[in-house]
Amino acid sequence: MKKIHYRFVSFFRTAILTSAVLLACSISGCSSENSSGSSSEASVSEETAKDYIRSTSFKLNTVVTITIYDSEDEALLAQCMELCDKYEKIFSRTSSDSELFQLNHRELTPVEGQTDTYQVSEELADLLSIGLSWTQKSNEAFDIAIAPLTELWDFTSETPTVPADSDIRNALSKCGIQGVSIHDRNITLESDDTAFDLGGIAKGYIADRIKDYLVSQGIQSATINLGGNVLCIGAKPDGTPFKIGVQKPFADRNETAAAMEITDKSVVSSGIYERFFEQDGVLYHHILNSQTGYPYKNDLIAVTIVSDHSVDGDALSTTCFALGYEKGLEFIETIPDTEAIFITSDYELHYTKDFQKNITVSASRLS
After folding, report:
1. Which CATH class is domain 93-189?
2. Partners of 183 in the beta sheet?
3. Nearest CA-CA partner of 262 in 232, 287, 285, 282
4. Mean pLDDT, residues 153-158 taken together
């Protein structure tokens, strides 16, 4: 008997590399319309909770919430939502009118005089370059050229099923970044089979661009929550940090494993509990191994990354999960200005060596 469980379906996370749901304790009361100081949040003091504007909308097939604490200009919120729409039309793997879909299916016109080189938008070239960089840094533990495989695993179906092993092997032969190169806005794809899934980094990239926009408009206190990718601009207006909670694995979304005080940082997680199904007594989760074609099997349940840029946190949360606790910890310790929490299969929380020196956190052993 198969059971399917999923919190939300993001078009960026159709089958792989999701960022786990984070509870932004300071912005956890999502509403369906703009708010302006009428309610207080559980973890926000009364004096700061009554002065904010907020917009929540279903974008990118997930819940997007933008909260601004130092402005009453709701046009800023509208522009943030428009940015989500703009990037969806570029980065969606499944929407037939997106630029990425057209690149994957070779529907773009090749550069004159070339048969395998295409000119793409500045935004798509930028994100593909970032993705290729992290793919190389991680020795393909994180892999953006995995679309032939992710297309086989449909975790959003009412009756998800493990793909045939022969189909998985065939898809694996088409995965990988060999023969891929990018120069400025021109991308060369030597193999007709190469196709990209930017699900591991797209939401982080969009969050970073929304932050850039708000900062350019003079905003110094805000939170951006793209379906659980949380990015803080500055601190609360009274100077105190935002409180961000990491979801307790396999629990309700309002149960946290750890609560952190965050100022001007991104918090992103990857875990096996967001979308999975059971078949013949085996749990299959959405974080796929690009070497075997099946979900990773290691000692981890979740990884949370605290970083300056959300796109990096996206890539690193998946990379560290893929590497497992010991190798993942060793890898993350080489990344400057970045901290991590690992939740192992025994439900213990493990921190990078400087985490609790740099970040105030409260947590206990999970059960």
Report:
1. mainly alpha
2. 186
3. 232
4. 81
